[in-house]
Amino acid sequence: MTKYLQMNVKSLLTNPYLIFWSILFIEFWVFMWVFVFGGDLLLIDEAMRMEAVRLYMASAYGNLLILSLSGACVTIGSSILYSSRSIRFVTKYTRLSPARFLFENLASSLVALLVVSTIMLLSIMAVFYSRFALFIVPVNPAGLAGSLLLSTLFIYALSLFLNLLIVTLKAPKSANFISFLPLIFGFISYSALWIDFKAAVYVSPFNCITSICYFAASGEIPPAGNFFAPRSSQTLVDVNLVLISLLAWIAVLIAIDVLLLRKMRGVGVEEIRTT
Question: Is the pLDDT of residue 1 over 70?
Fold first, then answer.
């Protein structure tokens, strides 16, 4: 493990913005899902309650994970934006190539994002147990681990793309808006709780993440939206297609990221602060 990788992991995991928006703020919604929105689950017959709670917990984790990772995406993106000029210098005048920098920055960011994702999973399991006295574990732990890896990889690639785009286009005035786009997209995806996205779910990487996490956690085919509607009225998702879609998004974004790293010239901190 290189010094840069260690320092970047520490910097991200101790960042107060990431801790608040990706963990503490989402914990509030975990308690809302369990103690406010999930009260009706206690009325279900005990023979069927465990399966109902499992599906409900899978919905909660899949949807809240999107908001948590989107918040982390803003933090990771801003760190890249503010250090863009330094990144340009070290990748041009030292032996650290753009590809190697991308790998080390990716690895450190993935560690931080996976820690956040794991904290969210464990906290949801604990809060659900405290409410329903049922210890629910993912049906497919290995599948969920793979889903989290793909989810964090996509979030990182998107964050890097948006902020490298700002730097390459010399558009620091747009930094505040563009940096928050992942969070905006995350909340749009969250609306699938009440809206059936139908085929649009296959082109939305955020909904793809929700779908694969739901599938791994519950073992059931995820709906394309309208999670609280009767199962018979829901449009079900083809899990293979959403997985292929997410992989395609990741591959395209990483390829573009490498190109932008080679082309960017950097933006000074003063330019960002004065916008």
Answer: no
